Amino acid sequence: MRHPKVSDCVEVFDSLWPPALAEPWDSVGLAVGDPDSEVRSILLALDPMDAVIAEAVVLGADLVFNHHPLMLKPVKSVNAATLKGGAVHTLISNDIALFNAHTNADSARGGVSDVLISLLGIEDARPLAAHSGADDSERGSPATGIGRVGDLDRPTPVRDLARRLATQLPRTTTGVRIAGDPAATATRVAVCGGAGDSLFDEVRASGADVYVTADLRHHPATEALDTANRRERGLSLIDVSHWASETVWLNAAAEALETEFARRGFAVSLQHSAVNTDPWVERY
């Protein structure tokens, strides 16, 4: 078996998480790197933070595969004295490529939200906001889109769902929080890995009894609860760490990559970053 080039890796990544599935505002794909460079080792991480890049240098990784983009917004300079520029210079000077799959990995089958909802035992979930009306067949698939919703095997108290997530997700300082009635019984669950408070309309339309997501803010959360109560349709919220809700996907991503690289006859080592990039470290 031979080692892939960066361009070969990009083809593998794009086959698993098609860039056509990315949201229009997103930035996905190869951000740094020579397409002709050989790749022996890939480091998988959620965030392209300095500590992760430094880890890649120490480990001798040839490519860093991230979920979150390094340059989501355009930059006017890659001056090494700047945050983004410094990262780019470190990567280039150490011959390390940087690639990310963001909202395309959220939307694709087996993606971030599929993994999150599977922690609650739901394997046949459908998207909360499905892609439609696009030319790309994958983008138009009813199985692709942002968020997921599905039915539990049996009615379950919201408190028990939160406790289950607390044991399944990596432990974090912010923990797992409930808004609404913890004793309410849920039969249908909606989830969105990462920040999902833009999807409350879709959550209500789905008929979900509980919504699991991250980074819930005070006003959207309280308005969602009031709206549900006015419609006499109870809705509970489970708020988890952004990092925890998405980092669990990396194991599934690694499995998919191992299978696809082997199928194409490539030999490459996959390593998981040991850096916890959850920004919250203490609570009082």
Write the layout of secondary structure elements.
Blueprint: H1 6-16, E1 29-32, E2 41-45, H2 50-59, E3 63-66, H3 83-93, E4 97-100, H4 103-107, H5 112-118, E5 126-130, E6 145-157, H6 158-168, E7 177-179, E8 185-195, H7 200-206, E9 210-214, H8 218-230, E10 236-240, H9 242-247, H10 249-263, E11 269-272
Parallel strand pairs: 2-3, 2-11, 3-4, 8-9, 9-10
Antiparallel strand pairs: 1-4, 5-6, 6-8, 7-10
Care to describe what's here?
The protein has 284 residues and is an alpha/beta fold. Helices cover 34% and strands 22% of the residues. The protein has 10 helices and 11 strands. Helix 8 (218-230) links the parallel strand 9 and strand 10 (236-240). Helix 1 (6-16) crosses helix 10 (249-263). The relative contact order is 0.17. Residues 133-140 have low confidence and may be disordered.
What is this entry, summarized?
This protein is of the alpha/beta class and 284 residues long. It is built from 10 helices and 11 strands.
